[in-house]
Description:
Blueprint: H1 4-18, H2 23-30, H3 34-41, H4 49-59, H5 63-85
Amino acid sequence: MILLRRLLGDVLRRQRQGQGRTLREVSSSARVSLGYLSEVERGQKEASSELLSAICDALDVRMSELMREVSDELALAELARSAAATEPVPAPVRRPMLNSVSVTGVPPERVTIKAPAEAVDVVAA
């Protein structure tokens, strides 16, 4: 089972550690007990919206950014769970590497690329 509180705690911990800050610093700034913040980061406690707001303020992170990152983590966890519940994922197919080529001063209609279709992604600039 995917627990939202665990994903949220992981993201909060990464944010804090990415800033090189301690639990004590953030808990003091957010006016939250160190033990409670630790439990939130470990996914053992559900944080209220007020508490999340205080932690985000202490970390100088927008709550929308925090939630976006949690949402991305949740989507990945759901995909992984879905893939694990169905057929095994086939091994990746090794394709030949292509060199990067830059073409300037040539009209786009004059450029021809010859390569295996499955090995090329063409993006219009």
